[in-house]
Amino acid sequence: xxxxxxxxxxxxxxxxxxxxxxxxxxxxxxxxxxxxxxxxxxxxxxxxxxxxxxxxxxxxxxxxxxxxxxxxxxxxxxxxxxxxxxx
Length: 87
Ligand SMILES: [Zn+2]
Description:
The longest helix is centred in the middle third of the chain and has 20 residues, at 42-61. The chain has helices at residues 8-23, 28-40, 42-61, 68-80. The radius of gyration is 13 Å and the shape is globular. It is built from four helices and no strands. It has one domain (8-81). The N and C termini lie close together (8 Å).
C-alpha cells in the first residue's frame, strides 16, 4: 500500500475535525474515517497516538477541553514529518 499521492493538506483538514473527536462530538462515521486514514498515513497515525495520549492525560488531570495549543502542536507534527518517511 502506498501513499504517493498523499496530500497532507487533507491531513490538516482532518485534524481540524479531531478537536471535535476529542470532545466526543464527532459521529462514529467520521471517527472511523479518521482511524482508517491513520492506518495508511504515518503522519496521522503519529498524531492520533499523540492525541490519544494527550487526551488521556488531560482527562485525568482536569475535566476540561484540550487546550488550543495542542491542535497547533498536531500541525507541527504533520509538518515536521518529511514525505520521504512515508511508506
Ligand atoms: Zn494523513
